[in-house]
Recover the amino acids of this structure.
C-alpha cells in the first residue's frame, strides 16, 4: 500500500457507511463524497438515519425527508426515519396497505415494535439495503461512533434473538449487504489524541461485532501537513525562549508554535492511524464559513487526491473486479 | 466555606462557582467534540477541591471520561480519584480554589456498563434468587441488557437514580452522549415506562397465570389475530420468550416505573442545572442553540453556557520584522527571512480563525440571552496548548471556568 490512502475505494463502493467521533466533520465529509460521486456521473443518495434534526439541512438548504429528494444532478438526500421504514417493511411483508395500516393502528403492536430492542436499527438498515438497489452509491451518514457500533451490531444480536421469521430474514438481508465487497465503512478522524484513541477503539469494536464489514480507509480531516523543517522548529523553539521578545513578538511566535503543534498532531495521528488502515488526509479549511462551502472545498480536495483514479474510473470499475485484490 | 475568588470575577465564572458549589446535579449537554467530558470532569474536580463529595458520571458509549481523568479504565463501579497526588503535583500557584487552605472533598468517577447496571437493578428488585436467575437466563433480557443502542440511556437513568439517592455525594456531574442521543437520554424514563406499560403487560399476562396460561391466553380470544401477526413478524419462539420475560418482569414493574418517574423529577428539581457546552463553530453552536430551546421548552434549568476551544489573536497587521526580526537574525541568519514570513502567515491564519470563532460566540451569546431577556452566564475557555488528558490538565482549566475576570 502506498504511503497515503487511495480514496478511490470510496467511489467504487455501492454502500458507504461513514462514522467517527462527534465533531470530526463526518456529515460534511459524507456530503463531499456524495457530491464528488455524483459529479462522476454515479446516481448517488446521501442519507441520515432517523435524525431528529438532520445535519444535511445546513449543507443542502433543505430538510431531507424520508423519501429521497433530488438536490442536484445525480444527487439525492434523505433521512431514513424509522416509523415509515417500518411501514415499508411491513408492507413488503404482508402486502396490501390496508393490513399494514390496521397493524400500525393497533396501539399494542406499535408500542411493542417501538420497544423491541434493535427493531429500530433493523428497520433503518433494512431500508438502506433497499435504497441501495436503486442507486449506484448510497452514502450513509451514521450516528457518532459509539452509537454507530451499537447500530451495526444489531445484526449479530438479532441472529441470537430471532430464530425464524421475517425479522430474522430482515437481519440476514442486512448482513449480506454489510458483507458485500462493495460495502465499506469509513471512519473519520481528526489529528487529536483522543479522537485517534476513539477511532482505534471503534474500528476494533466493529471488527469484532461485524467482522465481514470492510473498513478499507480512514479519513483524517482537518489535517495540517508537516512543512516545518527540523532547523525551523529549532529556531522557533529558540525564539520562544528568547528574552528579547516583547508581548507582541511573543504573540507572533506563539502563532508559529500553534501551527507547529498542529503539524506535530497531524504527524502523530497519521502514524497511529496508518497502523490500522490506509489514511486519506484532508487539509484543514477555514471553519465557520458555512457547511455548504466547506463541503464544496472538501469535495475539491478529495477530487485532487483521487484524480488519477477518477479519470480512470471507467476502466478501474472493470479492472477492479478482476484485480488481484 | 471560604472561597478565595478574584475580586473581578466574570459573571460566567461566578455562576459556575455558584453551580458547582451548591447544586446537587449538573448535566452537561452539547454536541460531540466540544470538550463536554473534559468540562464535566473539570467542574467536578473544582467542586471536590472546594470540599464537596463529587461523582462525575458518563454514559457516553465511547470511553472518554477515563481518558480525560488519566485512568486506563473505569468500570460500572464508582472509582475514587486520588487528589493528594494532584495537589502535590499542582503545588500552590493557580492550584484551584485555595487547595491549601482546607481539606479537599472527594472526587469519584464512574462510566456506565449498561449490562451490569441492569443486572444490579434486577438483583435488587427480584423477589428471590430463582426469579433473578430466570431473568438473567432469558434471551430477550440478555439482548435488552446488552449491546442494542439505546440501552445506555435506559441504564443511565437507573444508575443516576441510585447514586443520587445514595446520599454519598453532594454533587453529581453527569456527562451526556452527543446530541441525538442526549435527547433520548432526557426521554429515556418516558420510553422505558412505556415499554413497561401496564396495559401492554396485561395483554400478555393473566392475573393468576403461569407460563402455559400465558400461551393459552395468547392463542385464544380477541388477541389471537394480533398475536398471530406478531408471531408472523417476530417468530413464535421469540413471542414465547417474550411472554416469559413479561411474566418475570411483572413483579419488577412497579419498582422500575417508580424509579424512572423519580429520575424525571430529579431532572426538574431546583437543585439540578444543565450546563450547555459548545465550541466556537457552526455545528456545535447550532446544537447548543437547539439544546437551549429544548431545555427551556421542557422548563428545565440552564445554569450556564461554556464555550471551549477558543483561539485568540490580539495584534492587527503586526510588523513582523520590527517585532522579532533582530532576534531571529541573531539566531539564524539563513533561516530568519523565511521564518518571519512563516510567522506572519501563521498569525494571519490564527487571526482569521479567531475572528470567525468570535462570530459564532456572538451568535451563541444572542441565543443564550433568550427571548425573555434575563441572560445566561457564559464562560469562555481558550484552546489548550496541550490536550487535557490528566488531572493537572483539568485543574488548569479552572483558570478559565472559575477564575475568569470580567
Amino acid at each position: 500500500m502506498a504511503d497515503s490512502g487511495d480514496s478511490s475505494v470510496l467511489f467504487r463502493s455501492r454502500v458507504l457507511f461513514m462514522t467517527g467521533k462527534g465533531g470530526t466533520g463526518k456529515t460534511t465529509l459524507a456530503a463531499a463524497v456524495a457530491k464528488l460521486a455524483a459529479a462522476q456521473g454515479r446516481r448517488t443518495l446521501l442519507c441520515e438515519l432517523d435524525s431528529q434534526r438532520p445535519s444535511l439541512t445546513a449543507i443542502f438548504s433543505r430538510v431531507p425527508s424520508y423519501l429521497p429528494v433530488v438536490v442536484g444532478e445525480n444527487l439525492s438526500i434523505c433521512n431514513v426515519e424509522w416509523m415509515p421504514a417500518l411501514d415499508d417493511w411491513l408492507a413488503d411483508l404482508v402486502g396490501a396497505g390496508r393490513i399494514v395500516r390496521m397493524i400500525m393502528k393497533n396501539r399494542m403492536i406499535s408500542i411493542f415494535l417501538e420497544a423491541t430492542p434493535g427493531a429500530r436499527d433493523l428497520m433503518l438498515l433494512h431500508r438502506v439495503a433497499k435504497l441501495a438497489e436503486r442507486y449506484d452509491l448510497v452514502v450513509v451518514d451514521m450516528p457518532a461512533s459509539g452509537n454507530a457500533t451499537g447500530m451495526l451490531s444489531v445484526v449479530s444480536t438479532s441472529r441470537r434473538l430471532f430464530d425464524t421469521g421475517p425479522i430474522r430474514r430482515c437481519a440476514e438481508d442486512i448482513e449480506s449487504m454489510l458483507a458485500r465487497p462493495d460495502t465499506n465503512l469509513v471512519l473519520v478522524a481528526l489529528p487529536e489524541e483522543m479522537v485517534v484513541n476513539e477511532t482505534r477503539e471503534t474500528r476494533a469494536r466493529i471488527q469484532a461485532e461485524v467482522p465481514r464489514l470492510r473498513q478499507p480507509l480512514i479519513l483524517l480531516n482537518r489535517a495540517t501537513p508537516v512543512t516545518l523543517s527540523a532547523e525551523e522548529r529549532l529556531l522557533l523553539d529558540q525564539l520562544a525562549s528568547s528574552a528579547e521578545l516583547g508581548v507582541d513578538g511573543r504573540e507572533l511566535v506563539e502563532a508559529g508554535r500553534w501551527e507547529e503543534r498542529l503539524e506535530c498532531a497531524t504527524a502523530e495521528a497519521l502514524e497511529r492511524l496508518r497502523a490500522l488502515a490506509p489514511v486519506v488526509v484532508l487539509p484543514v479549511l477555514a471553519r465557520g464559513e458555512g457547511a455548504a462551502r466547506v463541503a464544496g472545498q472538501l469535495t475539491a480536495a478529495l477530487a485532487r487526491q483521487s484524480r488519477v483514479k477518477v479519470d480512470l474510473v471507467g476502466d478501474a470499475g472493470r479492472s477492479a473486479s478482476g484485480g488481484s485484490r | 466555606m471560604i472561597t478565595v475568588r478574584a475580586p473581578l470575577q466574570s459573571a460566567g465564572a461566578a455562576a459556575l462557582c455558584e453551580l458547582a458549589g451548591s447544586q446537587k446535579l449538573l448535566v452537561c449537554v452539547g454536541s460531540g467534540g466540544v470538550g463536554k467530558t473534559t468540562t464535566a470532569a473539570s467542574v467536578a474536580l473544582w467542586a471536590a477541591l472546594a470540599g464537596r463529595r463529587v461523582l462525575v458520571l458518563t454514559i457516553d458509549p465511547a470511553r472518554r471520561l477515563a481518558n480525560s481523568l488519566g485512568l486506563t479504565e473505569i468500570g460500572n463501579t464508582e472509582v475514587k480519584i486520588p487528589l493528594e497526588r494532584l495537589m502535590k503535583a499542582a503545588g500552590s500557584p493557580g492550584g484551584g480554589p485555595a487547595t491549601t487552605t482546607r481539606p479537599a472533598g472527594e472526587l469519584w468517577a464512574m462510566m456506565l456498563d449498561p449490562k451490569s447496571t441492569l443486572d444490579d437493578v434486577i438483583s435488587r428488585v427480584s423477589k428471590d434468587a430463582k426469579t433473578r436467575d430466570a431473568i438473567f437466563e432469558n434471551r430477550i433480557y440478555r439482548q435488552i441488557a446488552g449491546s442494542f443502542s439505546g440501552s445506555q440511556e435506559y441504564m443511565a437513568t437507573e444508575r443516576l437514580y441510585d447514586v443520587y439517592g445514595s446520599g454519598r455525594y453532594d454533587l453529581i456531574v453527569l456527562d451526556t452522549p452527543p446530541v441525538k442521543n442526549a435527547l433520548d437520554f432526557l426521554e429515556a424514563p418516558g420510553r422505558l415506562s412505556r415499554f413497561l406499560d401496564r396495559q401492554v403487560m396485561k395483554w400478555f399476562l393473566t392475573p393468576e397465570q403461569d407460563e402455559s396460561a400465558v400461551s393459552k391466553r395468547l392463542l385464544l380470544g380477541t388477541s389471537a389475530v394480533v398475536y398471530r401477526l406478531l408471531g408472523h413478524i417476530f417468530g413464535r419462539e421469540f413471542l414465547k420468550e417474550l411472554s416469559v420475560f413479561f411474566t418475570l418482569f411483572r413483579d419488577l414493574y412497579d419498582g422500575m416505573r417508580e424509579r424512572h418517574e423519580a429520575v424525571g423529577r430529579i431532572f426538574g428539581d431546583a437543585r439540578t442545572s444543565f450546563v450547555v457546552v459548545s465550541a466556537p463553530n457552526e455545528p456545535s453552536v447550532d446544537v447548543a442553540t437547539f439544546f437551549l430551546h429544548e431545555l427551556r421548552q421542557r422548563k428545565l434549568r440552564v445554569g450556564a453556557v461554556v464555550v471551549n476551544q477558543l483561539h485568540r489573536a490580539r495584534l492587527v497587521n503586526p510588523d513582523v520584522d520590527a517585532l522579532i526580526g533582530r532576534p531571529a537574525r541573531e539566531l539564524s541568519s539563513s533561516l530568519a527571512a523565511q521564518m518571519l514570513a512563516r510567522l506572519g502567515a501563521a498569525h494571519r491564519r490564527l487571526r482569521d480563525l479567531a475572528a470567525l470563532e468570535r462570530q459564532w460566540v456572538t451568535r451563541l451569546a444572542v441565543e443564550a440571552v433568550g427571548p425573555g431577556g434575563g441572560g445566561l452566564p457564559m464562560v469562555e475557555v481558550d484552546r489548550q496548548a496541550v490536550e487535557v488528558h490528566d488531572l493537572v490538565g483539568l485543574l488548569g482549566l479552572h483558570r478559565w471556568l472559575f477564575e475568569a475576570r470580567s
Summary: Chain B has 19 helices and eight strands. Chain B has three domains: 11-113+152-186+257-313+375-401, 117-147+193-255, 320-361. Chain B touches chain A through 87 residues (CB under 8 Å). The longest strand of chain B covers residues 302-310.
